[in-house]
Amino acid sequence: MLELLSPAGSPEAVAAAVQSGANAVYLGCGDFNARRRAKNFSREDLAAAVEYCHIRGARVYLTLNTLLSDRELPAALDLAGYANAIGVDAVLVQDLGLARCLRRQFPDLPLHGSTQMTVHSLDGVKFCAGLGMERVVLSRELSRRAIAHICAHSPIQIETFVHGALCMCYSGQCFLSAMVGTRSGNRGLCAQPCRLPYNGGYPLSLKDMSLAGHLRELEEMGVACVKIEGRMKRAEYVAIVTQIYADAIRQRREPTAQELERLRRAFSRSGFTQGYYLGQTGPGMFGVRQSEEAPEDLYAQARDRCRREAPLVGVSMAARIRPGEAAALTVSDSQGHTAQVTGPLPETARTRPLEPQDVEAQLSKTGGTPYGVDGSTLDLAPGLSLPKSALNALRREGLEALSAQRAAPPDRRALPLPPQPGAKRREDPPELIFSLSRWDQLTPALLALPHRFVDLPAAVLAQAPDRVRQVQAAGGQLRAALPRVCWDEERPALAKQLETLAALGVTHARVPTWDLVPVARDLGFALWGDFGLGVYNSRTLEGLAELGFAGATASFELKWPLLRDLIKPLPTEAIVYGRLPLMLLEQAPGGAETEALTDRLGVTFPLRRTDSGRYELLNSQVLYLADKPEWKRAGLSCARLSFTDESPQRCLAVAREYAEGGLPPRDFTRGLYYRDVE
User: Fold this and answer.
1) What is the pLDDT of residues 263-299, one digit of tens each?
2) Is 365 exposed, middle or buried, given 0-12, 13-18 or 19+ CB atoms closer than 10 A?
3) Contact 580/618 with Cβ under 8 angstroms?
4) Is 274 helix (H, G, I), strand (E, B) or coil?
5) Sign (positive/negative) of CA torsion 85, 88, 94, 96?
6) Residues 631-674: pLDDT tens digits?
7) pLDDT value at position 678?
8) Would you say 70 and 38 are in contact if contact means Cβ atoms under 8 Å apart?
9) Domains 3-166+206-307 and 431-580+622-669 are alike in CATH topology
10) Could you say which DSSP state residue 348 is in?
11) Quick one: DSSP state of residue 143?
C-alpha cells in the first residue's frame, strides 16, 4: 500500500497529520532545511515528535535538504547525529557533500534524495542509489509515463508529490529569489518572486497540483510513497488534506466529489492542475489564490477531530489470573513488540466471582490511548476476585510498557568522520572558458585567445562535424555542454549525439545534473560538473573527485570568501560573465511564447528556449567582473564567460577584456559574489 507522507511545519501539524492517517511526516529542525520560514522544531520538539509518531506507528523524516557551506557542515552533521541517536527514520538531502558525510559517519541512518536534487530520470535514480540512498523524490514536472518507466526499473523506492504548491522552476535549479533579494530557494528561504505579477499577469504562478484521482494508478506503477506539500501551512490544513488522501488510500478508492471540494476549499490557486502528470501543459495550469480567507468551518471540524486520540495501533492482550499467582498481562503489537506486567494476587471471591466478560470489558477500555484491542485471550481460574482498579492498572501499565518499546530508538552506529585531504592552493590566474550558444559566436580571433575550453551545446556540436574538426585542427579544445534536463525518452537522442562527438574526438562534457552522469561517463567523457550540481562546500568537491569528475563549477550563490576558501581537490571553475540562468522551465511562462518577462518595477528578464525545448529565464543584467581582482585570486582553475545572445564581436570584446582588463558596461551586476545569500 502507498505510504502517505504529510508535511509538519510545527509540532501541532505532527499530531494533525498522524491523527488524520499519515503513515509518515517530514519536518525541519533548525536552519538546514528547505522551509526555514516554517515554525520548525527545536531538538526537544524533534525528539518529542519522533516518540509521538513511533508510538502511533508513523515514521519521521528529517529535512536537511539545503546547500551548506563549509562553516555550516559541522552543525548540520551534529544535528544529523542527534537525529540518528533518537531514531529519526530517514534524512532528506540535496547536498552531495552532506550526503557523503552522513553515509560515512552514520551508516545506519537511511538517506532519501530530496526533490531539490532535480532527479528526473532512471539514470538519476540509479546514481542516487549508488550514493547509498534508499529513496528518491522525483521532479514534479514528470508525466505519468515517465514515472511509470522509472518505477518499473528503479533499484530503490520512488516518492512523488501528489498535492500542494507547484514551483514553476525545476526544484534545485531556481536562483531567482537569491538574485533579486539574496533569499535563496536552495538555502531554504525562497521569497516566491514567481507569485508576483509579470507582463501584467501571473505567468510564473502555477495552480496547486492534486493527483487525488490517480492514487491507485500510482500504486500500480510501483510508487512507494505519495507526498503532500505544505510545511508552511496551518495544522488544520494538514489534517484536512491528509484525512482525505488517507481514507482514499486505505479504502483503495479515489476521493469523492465532496472530498475534492473540501480539498479546494482548504487551499487552492484557482482550482488544481494535473497538467504535468497528464502531459497537458499550457495556460490551464496557471492560477493565483483568489481569497486569503481561511475556511474556518472546515478548520474547526479538523481541530475537533484531532483532539480525540484515534486507535491507530492494534494490540492483542493475554491475561492470566490464577490462584496464588500475581495477575499478569501480556500486550503485543503486530511489529513484534511484547510487554508483560504483573499486578496483585487475586483473592477468593466472597460474593460474585470474576467473570471473563468482566476482565475483557476492563482490558478493552483503551479510549484516550493510541491503541485498540484486536483480540484477547484469558486464562481465568473460577472463584477468584480482583478489583476493577487492579485490572485498569494492568491495562494502563501494559500499554505504557508497550509504548516505551515502540518509542525506543534503534541501535545505530556513529563513526568518526575521516578528515578531508588538503589540496594545494592554485596561485595562477584561472584559464578562460568560452561558453557559447551558437557557432557564429566562435570567430578565429576568439579561438586564438588563450583559453581552456570552448563550450557549445552537445546538439549544436553533433550537427556540425566539419566545424568540430576545424576547431580541433586550430588547436581548440571543445567541451560538450549537456542539456540541463533530459528525460528517459530523450536519452537515446542524447546518447547518439555523444557517440558522434566521441567519434570526433571530443573528450570532455559539462554535466548539469546527476541524471546525465552515467551516460557521459559510460561513453568515456571526462566529466565537468556544472552549477546545477550545487557545489557549495569542500566536501562536495571531494565527493566529485572521488566519483571521477575531472572538474566542477562552484555555485554562483557563493560569496567570494566562501569560494576562495574551498578546498579544491580537482579543477574548479566559476561563471564570471554572462546573463545568469535564474529559472529552468518545462513550459513557457503562462503557457504562451514570450521573449521576456517584465516585473512590476519595470525590470526585464530575457527568456530563451534551450536546445531541449525547455526555457531559461535569464537575469536582467549581465554579470561583469573583468575589472575586479577577486576572480583571479580565488584559487580557480577556470573562469567561464557565458555568452547567450551576444554578437560575435561582443564575445570577442568581452574575452579580450577578461584577458587584458576592461571597464564594465552601462548596465551590469556583480551577481552574488559580493552579497550575503541567506
Assistant:
1) 999 998 889 999 999 999 999 999 998 776 789 999 9
2) middle
3) yes
4) coil
5) positive
6) 999 999 999 999 999 999 999 999 999 999 999 999 999 999 99
7) 84
8) no
9) yes
10) E
11) -
What is the per-residue pLDDT across 459-514, written as a single tens digit (0 to 9) for each? 999 999 999 999 999 999 999 999 999 999 999 999 999 999 999 999 999 999 99
- What is the distance, to the nearest Å, from the Cα of residue 462 to the centroid of all Cα atoms in its chain? 34
Give a three-class secondary structure readout of 562-617. HHHCCCCCCCEEEEEEECCEEEEECCCHHHCCCCEEEECCCCEEEEEECCCCCEEE
Q: Identify whether the C-beta of residue 105 lies closer than 8 Å to the C-beta of residue 417.
A: yes
The CA-based dihedral angle spanning residues 628, 630, 633, 634, taken in that order and rounded to the nearest 10 degrees? -140
Whole-number CA gyration radius for the chain: 29
Check: CB of residue 276 under 8 Å from CB of residue 142. yes
Residue that is written with C-alpha cell 555550516 in the block: 72
What is the 8-class DSSP label of residue 526? E
Give burial (CB, 10 Å; 0-12/13-18/19+) of 47: buried
Could you give the CA distance from residue 668 to residue 622 in angstroms, rounded to a whole number? 5
Contact 119, 138 (CB under 8 A): yes
The full set of domain ranges for the chain reads: 3-166+206-307, 313-407, 431-580+622-669
Beta-carbon contacts of residue 616 (< 8 Å; ≥ 6 apart): 484, 581, 582, 583, 584, 585, 607, 608, 610
- Bin 285: left if φ > 0, else alpha if -120 < ψ < 50, else beta: alpha
Which three cell numbers mark 533? 550540481
Residue ranges of the alpha helices (H) in 474-581? 491-504, 517-522, 538-546, 560-564
The C-alpha cell at 76 is 548540520
- Tell me the CATH class for 3-166+206-307: alpha beta
What are the CA-CA distances from residue 29 to residues 8, 153, 269, 287 (Å)? 11, 34, 29, 32
How far apart are alpha carbons 494 and 517 in whole angstroms? 12
**How far apart are the C-alpha atoms of 609 and 437, rounded to whole Å?**
11
Q: Of the candidates 76, 147, 78, 62, which has an alpha carbon nearest to the alpha carbon of residue 112?
A: 62
Provide the grid cell at 558: 557563493
Task: Calculate the alpha carbon distances from 631 to 165, 423, 432, 639, 650 in Å.
Answer: 38, 19, 11, 8, 21
Interacting residues of 35 by C-beta distance below 8 A, sequence separation 6+: 9, 28, 63, 188, 231, 232
For 329-374, write each residue's pLDDT tens digit: 999 999 999 999 999 999 999 989 999 999 999 999 999 999 999 9
Backbone angles phi and psi of 237, in degrees to 5: -60, -45
Find the range with the poorest average confidence among 33-47, 291-305, 495-509, 557-571.
Answer: 33-47
What's the average model confidence in pLDDT over 546-561? 98
Q: 39 with 49: CB under 8 angstroms?
A: no
Q: Domain 431-580+622-669: what homologous superfamily?
A: Aldolase class I (3.20.20.70)
Q: What is the mean pLDDT of the chain?
A: 96
Long-range interactions of 598-602: CB distance < 8 A, separation 24+: 598/198, 598/199, 599/193, 599/196, 599/197, 599/198, 600/196, 600/197, 600/198
Whether residue 133 contacts residue 520, with contact meaning beta carbons closer than 8 Å, is answered with: no
Assign 31 a pLDDT band (cuts: 50, 70, 90): confident
Strand-pair category, 604-609 with 596-598: antiparallel
